[in-house]
Amino acid sequence: MTALYRYLVTSVLLSQRYLPPTLIFLAAMAVGTTSDNGPLQSSYAFCVLAMLVCTTWLTVSIVNHEDPTQRQITVVTMGSSLRVLATTVAVVVTWCVPLLIIGLVYPIVTGNHVVTAGTLAVGAAAQLGAALIGATIGLLCSRLVIRRIGIAMLTAAAAILAVLLLRWISPIRSIMTVLSNDKTAGANAVPLTLLAALSVVLLVAAVFVTKALADRKE
Amino acid sequence: MEVVRLRKVSKRYGRREILADVDLQVNAGELLALVGANGSGKSTVLKLMVGLSRPSAGSVQRNATVVSYVPDVFASHDRLSASAYLRHMGRIRGLSTRSAQARAHELLDRLALSGGADTPMRKLSKGNAQKVALAQALLRQPELLVLDEPWAGLDATAHTTLRELLTETAAQGAAVAFTEHSAQVVRSTATRVCEIEHGRLTAITHQTSLTEISMVPGANIDWSRHPDVVEVRPHEAGITLMVPTGLHDATLLTALQHGWSVTTVRQVRSE
User: Fold this and answer.
1) Where is each ABC transporter domain found (chain B) (predicted)?
2) CB atoms A15 and B84 under 8 Å
3) Which domain, by its residues, includes B240?
4) At B231, which CATH number?
5) Is B259 a member of any domain?
């Protein structure tokens, strides 16, 4: 698994496909949080939105970057499509870490906020939850499930709208609601950690669903 | 020893039946050729063998831990060089970085990858990409080697090298299965030939073993008209003939009587 991880990280790094979603995330940070003087948690609510969109795009880019025939070779070499998919998701999560750090630090550096360890923890949990839901949508809209890129893009856009508007289909709406309330970071930490944990469960479920759907197409 | 076995395998994509009741096994040391028209289901059989596809009915049993696969078209838009890609694949196969690199260079040298091993994969021509695909499959001695039209796009020199590599791999105990449209290639490489027609296995034929004779020319002989000669391969140093083992004595006698100088005689495919 380590060798496969190294191969995929190197291949993704050289492909530069991570650049557009990363740059869009940076641009969103600059537009949405620069010179913000409000509560830091509200700035983080905006970061959650940007993180969701950018990690969806990032996931589709990373999963789709290997050509289908090249992926077949990788799957046969590893002996399991699940292991290849799980390692690919590990690469996606790795790429989300720099975005998470930017999303945590940028509003503090460019705005005027009261920073506490509790607020940072809340921001980290909220953005991690958003990143994992973005990865879940990206995985289900990747070439492994939807072969036509146009349909995949429309489906991803619809899924992002759905998770933002509908409360019960994902933790995103709940994360945004918690970040926008007037409670202290300490009071918000527990529900946000639970929502981030729920996002992990949803991502794991998406891995199995994607594997089942991709295998069925072969 | 049976390395892979398909029992009563059927495959459907929606309502379309691709394969029906296919019973097939490939044994260690065997070179199995699957022949048939385009769309007859050959590639599907290969994908079932390596586990890329699952049967709609029936079962596939594999007794191999090291399985290698070469797809019909190897397209890569990777910026990784051929050598780096093979190094990574070798490491995934459990080789150390050094041995993966050494084996990759050895295989690429043998297959004569033009442009060199440091060429990015996305800049490789179809034939050169195919050579990289072949090299990745042979980084570690496979127990099951499956190739989908591996000769497609390869130059004449690589044709011979590929035949040698497949024969060597089978001789080391691997089960080798491939698809191919050229009757001559099938005749000179496979030990068993299976024909697939509209998703059904219609014929299985066992082939006799072959002997390869390399010679330096003497008097003019048109070997392609010689009844025992299966294949004639001219090269810079002379020519190489493929003759069914048992009939090679007569061919050698003819050659020597006409002043030809025999340089090597070896059995390339055993029964």
Assistant:
1) 4-223
2) no
3) 210-269
4) 3.30.70
5) yes
